Q: What sequence folds into this?
């Protein structure tokens, strides 16, 4: 599962401000006085019953072995995992997608990190993550940017109502700007909007950076009053190599190279010209742009290391009998954190457990095909890469779907199903269910009905609460389907002290519990694939 710390976009979600949950967050305990269906002539029971602890163990002991070196995206370890999973699909006879002859959907990732970045003003060194911040993925590779002056350019705005660039040539120059826009101190109105509302110049920093690029500026320094907060919000992105989708080795960005600088850096650049800056700011406060050329010995190194990593989503396919153009997608991510020195993050629960379960779900469904009981709808099994890097494999699929998303009935996602958390240490027959009622009341109802009929697990919706501080709904691959309007259900066992640690090993997996969860998932997918009408999208998921 994707760590909360890595998700930059979650800051927006956390501030969404919904006071009352509109989604179920209770616990469903099945009526165990009613017998489970165990008849062999019931196809769902027949094929689900073949999902056994021993088969799951066989897969997981390979995927979570030291020899796969933690399955990090872009490494030999994940390639070995992909070979193992695809070999299993060939052995059971699962079709490749669209007769491609391969189970692999290639996904390119660009790895960006600073090779070197130092900022000097009058030979005084300022430090990245202390005095300034610049993100390698947002900048072009420039080993040295140096100048003998920096131009203070107000807010860096070019607008019919206010223009900082008027009569100023910034080609090849370093400019320094403030965030926001100019305001009339008497009326409290923006000089640009003429109202108390901000303009796009305040709301979209890229707008300023694009103008600077078009004007030929070599670098934009943005004065950041709270540099500590900006650093904390982006520290993880800088301390870990950043991955982006696509081959972006030599990007041509629409925005100028830029860095956010502290007030200390800005004061060093201003030096003895403080009075000129004060005068310029007074002029700007009256709606009159005023630039100041600041003699400065300025140097910054922006050397970037960019490498393109090739990965693969793994896609297997069962064509439906009568509704072959409608698809049920079942997914799990097979990547993890890799190695750090000699320590291997095997990720037995996260997510060798989900990947192994998906392998058994595919085998069970294919067994039905071999026995002449092909499902009515098509079923697609996908193992995603790059989940730990920001849900990138599923994002790539959602943006480049092999099977049309408008024809995708639902996504069933399996991420961490092999452990028991503290809450259920005395009752391993449970599973947390997330997202089932967010887009479709049908999907939620189906899962509960098949659970009562076949497996009778405790279904805990605690983490389905939209105000859940963990935000698990946004942290696994199903979210990229839900964001496109595809109903999604996510099965999850909860966290434990070994989450994202080297101690997440096979010895701690509960295979009996894992098999029971796998059976529930099979019953849900089988119902979705065979019911007469596709489920309705009848909920509004904001």
A:
């Amino acid at each position: 599962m994707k760590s909360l710390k890595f998700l930059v976009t979650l800051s927006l979600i956390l501030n969404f401000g919904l006071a009352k949950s509109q989604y179920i967050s209770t616990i469903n305990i099945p009526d165990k006085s009613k017998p489970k269906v165990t008849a062999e002539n019931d196809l769902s029971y027949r094929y689900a019953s073949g999902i056994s602890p021993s088969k799951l163990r066989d897969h997981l002991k390979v995927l979570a072995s030291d020899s796969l070196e933690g399955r990090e995206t872009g490494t030999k370890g994940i390639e070995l995992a992909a070979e193992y999973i695809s070999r299993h699909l060939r052995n059971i006879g699962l079709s490749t997608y669209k007769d491609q002859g391969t189970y692999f959907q290639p996904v390119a990732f660009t790895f960006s990190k600073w090779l070197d970045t130092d900022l000097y003003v009058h030979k005084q060194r300022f430090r990245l993550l202390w005095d300034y911040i610049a993100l390698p993925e947002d900048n072009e590779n420039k080993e040295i940017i140096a100048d003998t002056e920096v131009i203070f350019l107000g807010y860096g705005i070019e607008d019919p109502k206010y223009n900082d660039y008027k009569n100023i040539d910034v080609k090849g120059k370093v400019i320094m700007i403030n965030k926001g826009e100019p305001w009339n101190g008497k009326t409290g109105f923006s000089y640009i909007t003429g109202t108390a509302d901000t303009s796009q110049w305040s709301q979209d920093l890229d707008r300023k950076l694009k103008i600077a690029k078009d004007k030929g500026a070599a670098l934009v320094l943005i004065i950041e009053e709270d540099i500590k907060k900006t650093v904390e919000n982006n520290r993880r992105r800088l301390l870990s190599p950043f991955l982006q989708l696509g081959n972006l080795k030599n990007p041509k960005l629409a925005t100028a190279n830029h860095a956010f600088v502290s007030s200390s850096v800005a004061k060093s650049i201003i030096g003895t010209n403080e009075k000129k800056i004060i005068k310029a700011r007074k002029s700007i406060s009256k709606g009159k742009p005023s630039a100041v050329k600041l003699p400065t010995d300025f140097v910054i190194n922006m050397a970037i290391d960019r490498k393109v990593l090739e990965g693969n989503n793994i896609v297997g396919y069962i064509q439906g009998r009568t509704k072959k153009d409608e698809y049920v997608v079942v997914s799990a991510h097979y990547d993890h954190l890799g190695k750090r020195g000699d320590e291997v993050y095997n990720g037995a629960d996260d997510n060798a457990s989900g990947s192994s379960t998906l392998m058994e779900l595919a085998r069970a469904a294919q067994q039905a095909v071999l026995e002449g009981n092909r499902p009515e709808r098509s079923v697609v099994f996908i193992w995603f890469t790059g989940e730990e890097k920001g849900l990138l494999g599923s994002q790539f699929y959602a943006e480049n779907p092999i099977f049309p998303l408008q024809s995708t009935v639902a996504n069933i996602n399996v991420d961490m199903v092999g452990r028991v958390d503290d809450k259920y240490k005395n009752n391993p027959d449970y599973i947390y269910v997330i997202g089932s009622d967010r887009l479709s009341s049908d999907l939620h109802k189906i899962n509960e009905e098949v659970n009562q009929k076949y497996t009778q697990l405790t279904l805990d919706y605690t983490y389905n609460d939209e105000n859940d501080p963990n935000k698990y709904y946004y942290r696994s691959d199903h979210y990229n389907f839900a964001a496109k309007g595809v109903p999604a259900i996510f099965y999850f066992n909860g966290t434990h002290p070994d989450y994202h640690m080297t101690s997440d090993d096979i010895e701690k997996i509960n295979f009996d519990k894992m098999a029971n969860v796998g059976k529930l998932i099979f019953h849900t997918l089988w119902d979705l694939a065979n019911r007469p009408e596709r489920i309705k999208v009848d909920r509004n998921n904001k």
User: Anything to note?
Assistant: The two ends are 22 Å apart (CA to CA). Residues 273 and 294 are 7 Å apart (CA to CA).
